[in-house]
Amino acid sequence: MTSATTGSTRNLLTDSPELYEARFPDPGRLSARWAEDCLRRHGAGPRVLDIGCGTGRDAAHLHGIGRTVTGADISPAMLDHARTHHPGPAYVRADLHGFDLGRAAFDAISCLDSAMLYCHTNDQLDGFLSSCRHALAPGGLLVTEMRNGAYFLGRTDLLDSPTVNEFTWRGATYRSTTTLTVDRTAQLLRRSRVWIADDGAEPVEQRSAWRLLFPQELRHLLAAHGFEVLELHDGPGPRTEPPWQEGLLPGRTTDADRLHLVARATGPDPAS
Q1: Helix (H, G, I), strand (E, B), or coil: what is residue 144?
Q2: How confident is the model at residue 9, as a pLDDT?
Q3: What are the alphabetically sorted keywords of the record (predicted)?
Q4: When you count CB atoms within 10 A of the terminal residue's CB, does the N or C end of the chain come out lower?
Q5: What pLDDT is recorded for position 10?
Q6: Are strands 47-51 and 90-93 parallel, antiparallel or unpaired?
Q7: Do 108 and 46 touch, CB atoms closer than 8 A?
């Protein structure tokens, strides 16, 4: 570990996929089951791209229920872990800011856990959506879930004080202190997370950020890239309280702290 005082941007969790899965266990594969429910309800074909697949848990679940899945991520460590521990899908390295995995090669794209919000600029968002539109067959689906920028209009409960979490992995106790701030000019939610372990290692400070998108802004972006919004709501979903479960239908509001999106590629690819 490197010292927190150095301003290191090392991502402790993506550098250590097994540690990531220990910190964020998902034995019930809730995110993947929610995504599958969206795909099934809207009649998606079998070929799925899971962009920002991380450790591969969701991609492997979708593969295991009969879909033909490609998992894509920019982290070599995550991809190596996925191939070893969650086999089945094809795993490839790709940058969600812009990728080309074949024209009309997929019937659906899933992008979960706010991965889309690592597109910080308008150019990066355009690159992501253009790449998705190019990759989807006509009528294909884009399924995403992410933080909701509108939640931070007049609310500060997630910003008022740091959040502390602690867990034990391989005999060591890890404590993280997370502080969130809003950069209104850049329209980013910035996160500083300091990790301390009781194994004698130096603390690590990890910095990251998510783009804050508003529901109507998101509709406009999708329409500009040839998508029709089928669902856009704040829950239930895999990270809402209470969480989604089988049989629950999407809501009608976009006020809470998560957004859930299903959009269909319509007409010809605007980039063609």
Answers
A1: strand
A2: 47
A3: Methyltransferase, S-adenosyl-L-methionine, Transferase
A4: C
A5: 56
A6: unpaired
A7: no
Could you give the CA distance from residue 120 to residue 26 in angstroms, rounded to a whole number?
Answer: 27
What amino acid is encoded at 107 in this protein?
D
β-sheet with 258-265: strand ranges across: 90-93, 68-73, 47-51, 106-111, 136-147, 258-265, 227-233
CA distance 194 to 206: 6
Per-residue pLDDT reduced to its tens digit, 153-174? 999 999 999 999 999 988 999 9
Q: What is the pLDDT of residue 272?
A: 64
Fold of 22-148+214-265: Rossmann fold (3.40.50)
Which residue is listed with tokens 């702290």?
257
According to the model, what pLDDT value does residue 5 have? 35
Contact partners, residue 201, CB within 8 Å, separation at least 6: 1
The domains of the chain are located at 4-15+152-210, 22-148+214-265
Q: Which CATH class is domain 4-15+152-210?
A: mainly beta
Q: Which token pair is 42?
A: 């809207």
Residue 156: the pLDDT is 97
pLDDT for res 169 = 87
Asked if 62 and 40 touch (Cβ cutoff 8 Å), the reply is: no
**pLDDT for 196-224, tens place per residue?**
999 888 898 999 999 999 999 999 999 99
Beta strand ranges found along 198-246 (DSSP E):
204-211, 227-233
Cα angle, residue 263 at apex, residues 262 and 268 outer, rounded to 5°? 160
CA distance 191 to 195: 13
Angle subtended at Cα 120 by Cα 151 and Cα 80, rounded to the nearest 5 degrees: 105
